[in-house]
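Onboarding guide, step 5: your first structure request.
Type a short instruction followed by the sequence, for example:

Predict the 3D structure of this protein.
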Amino acid sequence: MRRPIPERLREVRERATAAALRADRDPGEVVLLGVGKRQPAERIVEAVRAGLDHVAENFAQEARDKIPQVEAMLGETRPPRWHFIGRLQRNKARYVARLFDCVESVDRIELVQELDHRAALAERQLDVLIQVSLRGEDQKGGAGPDSLARLLEECRSYPRIRVTGLMTVPPASPDPEHARPVFAALRELAGELREKPGGEALRELSMGMSSDFEVAIEEGATIVRVGTAIFGPRDAA
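The system replies with structure tokens like these:
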């Protein structure tokens, strides 16, 4: 039997709070981002009504159908802030710029150009996070650390884009401690980049998922991306 989402959400919040306190941090500094990939709209609505105010999607075409459905079902309930966290091709940017408030998977200037163009057409402003590949896992996307300073500087030319932080996806491991060096490296990298042109507003660190979000919080995460721990097992693709 599937556990109720409000119960799951409460448990995740308690774990996040405990992790923040262990690191002598204010728990209010950490955004809990519920990952709705392959979850039906009804579960997203249940979580939002239970207090989840940030929701992420990985696939532009899934989101194109699901986000309007969720917002219609919510009625007068305030919709969540929508984050896009999946790999993004330029031909899907038209959906993403219109539907999402934040894009966390930007890793090249061509994508910034397209998002800026599409956001202008939609008369919107987009927050973006630069996805960083710290272990060279090309299949997950991400810009290399050596290219970030130039990318941040180039982003300043696009008025509809606000770069607010960095995101990373560590190598999969059953031991959450294996991700700790990656999370620490992203935190240190952000500190260095804040001294560079275009890096002044890097306040967000999106890192950590259901299996390792507590370690991420201990290492400075301001956004943790939690899916199955909140929503339960995903539906089949």
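Each response can be followed by summary notes, for example: The beta strands are 31-35, 54-57, 81-84, 102-106, 126-132, 161-168, 204-206, 223-226.
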